[in-house]
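Private note to self, pasted from the team thread so I don't lose it. Backbone tokens:
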């Protein structure tokens, strides 16, 4: 079972270290091999949880740039 809390903490830490005005998608915050350990449904669920954290200001200084249906959401560190 995926520990989403741990993944979200890691993502929040990585976001804090990004320079201002950096655009990113969630998978950019993780090394390729770690990200690839998740199944597709787990990636989607992690994406939903990350978006919720951004929208509810649990992860600060991040805004949603674009969220096309079926494609990874683009975020921006402010």
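Design output:
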């Amino acid at each position: 079972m995926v520990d989403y809390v741990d993944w979200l903490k890691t993502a929040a830490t990585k976001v804090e270290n990004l320079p201002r005005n950096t655009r990113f998608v969630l998978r950019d915050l993780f090394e390729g091999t770690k990200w690839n350990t998740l199944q597709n449904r787990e990636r989607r669920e992690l994406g939903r949880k990350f978006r919720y954290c951004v929208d509810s200001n649990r992860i600060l200084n991040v805004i949603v740039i674009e969220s096309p249906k079926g494609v990874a959401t683009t975020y921006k560190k402010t």
